[in-house]
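Data card: per-record layout.
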Amino acid sequence: MENVLRPVIVVGGSVMLTLLVGWAVDRLLRRADGRHHETPLWGLLRRGRVPFQLVLCTAMLRGSYAQAKLLEEHSIGIGRILTLTLIGSTAWLVVRIAAAVVETSYTRYATAHRDPARVRRVRTQVSLIQRVVSAIVGVVAAAAMLLTFPTMRAAGASLLASAGVLGIVAGVAAQSTLSNLFAGLQIAFGDMVRLGDTVVVDGEWGTVDEITLTFLTVRTWDERRITMPVSYFTSKPFENWSRGSAQMTGIVFFHVDHSAPVEAMREKLRECPAWDGRDYGLAVTDSTPNTMQVRALVTAKDADDIWTVRVTVRERMMRWLTEDHPYALPRVNTAGAAPPPGRTLQGPRRDQDGAATHSFEPPRTGTGRG
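The structure for this 370-residue chain is written out next.
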């Protein structure tokens, strides 16, 4: 009877105590979250209740397994499994706690500051810091798991003896990876590009959707994802429309006839409700034998609205010209050439190729012999 009750009491007691402590801690965190609405820390810490219970249960089983006297012939293997589980669950719990602290710090900063550019910068830094902490904890946990095996301890000693040579070899082999890693840290703390920034990369317009230590993802306007190494942003030029002020200026070109009412077009541009009212302008920038080029300049509050402003101005202006000034639209001029002063235009003649040509006849003076 003792051989049956002993393992049931040890294992069952560990599980029941784990569930009881986990329930109590979760209830305390829920009450703290309800009382302190100004900080999300307590609510975020509740995400770690599963790894906390796993750590608590594994620790109690690891410490009391010898008293259970269960499967004693396999005690070494079971003890090692419990140790590995304890290390892994502890790393999981540390990552959850660190994520809760980091996200709480970012939330407080975002609430206290209204500048979107600064908030995006801190968000980028917080995201990369969280990834660095998770990577460090994962590496340390993996190393601790490997050191639980006696053969790996001997291998670790030999690796330490040749650490210099291995470091040089690893540095040469992972040169691109290390450059991306340092580029990611430079982006995070150099304020070059942030999450949510509107950028133009290789002719593609989009929003920065994700930044890691090695790559960066840009979400384009048509929902595509462009992934590139972060070293690209430290070695090549790119456009960042969100850096500094969010206000932007858009340009719309029109090709119209030479008789187009430029002053009326300028007044019509001012009546367009799409722009933010900050600045506008319309000027003739170029001319061809058949048309002239008119440039309309409008402003918008941010990069997202500049596209809407441009297409709205183009649509309204072309509709207005079509309805009220159809003569201002581009057309092909098929009229005959105007004669110079003092000359008259003769009828068409045919050259040797059959093409019609015109010639000018000088005016008669009326002083001939009578």
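Known properties of this structure: The first strand starts at residue 198 and ends at 201. The first helix runs from residue 2 to 35.

See the next section for split statistics.
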